[in-house]
Amino acid sequence: MEVNNKVSKFRMYLPQILASTAKNLLILDIGLAVAFPTIAIPPLLGTVEGQEDEVFHFTAEEASWFGSLAFICTPIGRYLLGTIVTWREVALICLTIPVFTVIAICFVPETPLWLLSRGREKQARKSLQWLRGWVKPEVVEKEFLELQRYSTNSNRCNPCQKSDQTCTHPPPTLIEKMKELIRKRSLKPMFIVTMFFFFCQFSGMSGMRPYLVQIFQAYGAPVNPNWATVVTGLLKFLANIVCTVGVKFIGKRLISLVSIAGTAICCIAIGFYANIVLPPGWSSFDKHTNVPGDGTFPMVMFFALSFITSVGMIPVPWMLLSEVFPFKSRATSAGIVAALCYIMIFISTKTYLNLERSLGLDGTIWFYGIVAVLGFLFFYFFLPETENRSLEDIEIHFSTQKLTNIDIKKKSSEDSNVVEKKTDPSVENGLSGCDNKAYTDKY
Question: Where do transmembrane segments lie in this chain (predicted)?
Answer without folding.
Answer: 90-116, 187-207, 227-247, 254-276, 296-321, 333-353, 365-383
